[in-house]
């Protein structure tokens, strides 16, 4: 394992950092839950293995209500750290060393006693590391339901804060969903905001940590040939799509409380929309980037009912945890319009669904027809720039070329950048790895700011309330299909031209 000289990245020169001389304590609250086991601890382990978390300056604490020992917690998470394709002795040794950094504290989420014990354990670790009081760093990751955020944050504020007068800090990472509508989100923000300053709060949306999402600003603002094309004069429509080929699979009760719009569209897809549509920021400083994202959200027009199609897959209500009369959509396609100079008249189509015929997440930018089509090739399809977020990360441009041969026949092909082929042997980091590292660095660029969250909920709350009140009904669709046929009709009405006979095939190594 190679030791990194610094936690700073190449772009860190664009914003200021306080010197970080004290030891680092990472507290995973909800340590016995699925999120912590499957995402948080594996991300921490990968950072450790790559040398970003050093054993002589970091300690990890798990906190939950379950009464188990340190070794019990280590055994619970061990299996999620060892991958089937990497069971080497070196990997196993790294796992063992990492798990020795993990300590468990049991306590409730709404009483002082457990958090006082947690603070005692953290303080003893800081003393052992000879950290000067006020210089240590404390990161609290809330892998918990949002309902307990307020009480947990009160307990942290009351019992576990680090003095920050000598460069130390206390930071809070909260997971989505951030409320269920504008009112509940604002209430939650106010409760947390009364306890912590905005620079201390990191609202995590893991989509912002995905490699291809991180690439959007570079693609848009570092490549000359995109700059003149990225506007209403050249782009016909933009699709941002999330598809899963499985249903709720045991999470029906949780999912039914939120639905596909709250679970995927209002946060993940809307965040991607902001990065696709925003203007160039003044610099790469986090606040400059987040300022531009907020401007996009504030320019989105109210959603019209006739530009929304909802669906619910047949069999969804068979889940015993789902009410028999559930009105919760498992599929949604909607058209958003951005009222500004760059995007006036360009439909932004957001589409998400479960139990569909494929699994993928992508951004599809469709350009307008070539004027004066002398090759008579419009029927073959338009030029498109596709950014495939998952699986098989790739970027490719669909364009019309001459078919090889003696005849002048045209065909659609692609210019392709497939990551597995182009960057062989280069690991693509998991989103949680990147975002946790950003939190330690103090870089809030890829986290959701409070006013951004408020603007996002303002867009969707009226529609969500109509669905909750039963005024907007989802259409049934068969599992394994494309979703309701009405969704494809909506895409056509929005001006999307589907390419028939063309299939993108990921290159083989």
UniProtKB/TrEMBL annotation:
It is found in: Cytoplasm. It comes from the Eukaryota. InterPro entries: G6P_DH, G6P_DH_AS, G6P_DH_C, G6P_DH_NAD-bd, NAD(P)-bd_dom_sf. Residues 27-215 form the Glucose-6-phosphate dehydrogenase NAD-binding domain. PROSITE patterns: G6P_DEHYDROGENASE. Its EC number is 1.1.1.49. GO terms for molecular function: glucose-6-phosphate dehydrogenase activity; NADP binding. One of its GO terms (biological process) is glucose metabolic process. Residues 217-496 form the Glucose-6-phosphate dehydrogenase C-terminal domain. GO terms for cellular component: cytosol. It catalyses: D-glucose 6-phosphate + NADP(+) = 6-phospho-D-glucono-1,5-lactone + NADPH + H(+). Its main location: cytoplasm. Pathway: Carbohydrate degradation; pentose phosphate pathway; D-ribulose 5-phosphate from D-glucose 6-phosphate (oxidative stage): step 1/3. Keywords: Carbohydrate metabolism, Cytoplasm, Glucose metabolism, NADP, Oxidoreductase. Catalyzes the rate-limiting step of the oxidative pentose-phosphate pathway, which represents a route for the dissimilation of carbohydrates besides glycolysis. Belongs to the glucose-6-phosphate dehydrogenase family. This is Glucose-6-phosphate 1-dehydrogenase. It comes from Kalanchoe fedtschenkoi.
């Amino acid at each position: 394992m190679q030791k990194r000289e610094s936690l700073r990245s190449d772009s860190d020169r664009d914003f200021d950092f306080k010197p970080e001389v004290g030891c680092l304590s990472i507290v995973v609250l909800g340590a016995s839950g699925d999120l912590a086991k499957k995402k948080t601890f594996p991300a921490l382990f990968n950072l450790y293995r790559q040398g970003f978390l050093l054993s002589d300056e970091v300690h990890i604490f798990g906190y939950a209500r379950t009464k188990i020992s340190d070794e019990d917690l280590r055994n619970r998470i061990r299996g999620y750290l060892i991958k089937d394709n990497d069971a080497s002795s070196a990997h196993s040794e790294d796992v063992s060393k990492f798990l020795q950094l993990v300590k468990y504290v049991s306590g409730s989420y709404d009483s002082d006693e457990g958090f006082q014990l947690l603070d005692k354990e953290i303080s003893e670790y800081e003393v052992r590391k000879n950290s000067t009081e006020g210089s240590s760093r404390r990161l609290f990751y809330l892998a918990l339901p949002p309902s307990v955020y307020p009480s947990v944050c009160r307990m942290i504020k009351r019992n576990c804060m680090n003095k920050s007068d000598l460069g130390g800090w206390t930071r809070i990472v909260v997971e989505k969903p951030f409320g269920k509508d504008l009112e509940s989100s604002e209430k939650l923000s106010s409760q947390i905001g009364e306890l912590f300053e905005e620079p201390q709060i990191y609202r995590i949306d893991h989509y912002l940590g995905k490699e291809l999402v991180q690439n959007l600003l570079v693609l848009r603002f570092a490549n000359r040939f995109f700059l003149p094309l990225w506007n209403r004069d050249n782009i016909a429509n933009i699709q941002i799509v999330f598809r899963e080929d499985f249903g709720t699979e045991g999470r029906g009760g949780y999912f039914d409380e939120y639905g596909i719009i709250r679970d995927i569209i209002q946060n993940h897809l809307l965040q991607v929309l902001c990065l696709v549509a925003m203007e160039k920021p003044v610099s790469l400083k986090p606040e400059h980037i987040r300022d531009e994202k907020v401007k996009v959200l504030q320019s989105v027009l109210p959603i019209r009912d006739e530009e929304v199609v909802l669906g619910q897959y047949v069999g969804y209500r068979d889940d015993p945890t789902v009410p028999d009369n559930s009105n919760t959509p498992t599929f949604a396609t909607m058209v958003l319009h951005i009222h500004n100079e760059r995007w006036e008249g360009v439909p932004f189509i957001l589409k998400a669904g479960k139990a569909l015929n494929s699994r993928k997440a992508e951004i599809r930018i469709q350009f307008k027809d070539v004027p004066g089509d002398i090759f008579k090739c419009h029927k073959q399809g338009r030029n498109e720039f596709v950014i495939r977020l998952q699986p098989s990360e790739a970027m490719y441009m669909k364009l019309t070329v001459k078919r090889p041969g003696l005849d002048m026949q045209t065909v659609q092909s692609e210019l392709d950048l497939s990551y597995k082929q182009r960057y062989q042997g280069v690991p693509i980091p998991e989103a949680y790895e990147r975002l946790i590292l950003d939190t330690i660095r103090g870089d809030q660029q890829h986290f959701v700011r409070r006013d951004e969250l408020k603007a996002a909920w303002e867009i969707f709350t009226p529609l969500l309330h109509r669905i909750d009140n039963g005024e907007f009904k989802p259409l049934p669709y068969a599992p394994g299909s494309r979703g309701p046929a009405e969704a494809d009709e909506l895409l056509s009405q929005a001006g999307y031209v589907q390419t028939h006979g063309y299939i993108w095939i990921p290159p083989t190594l």
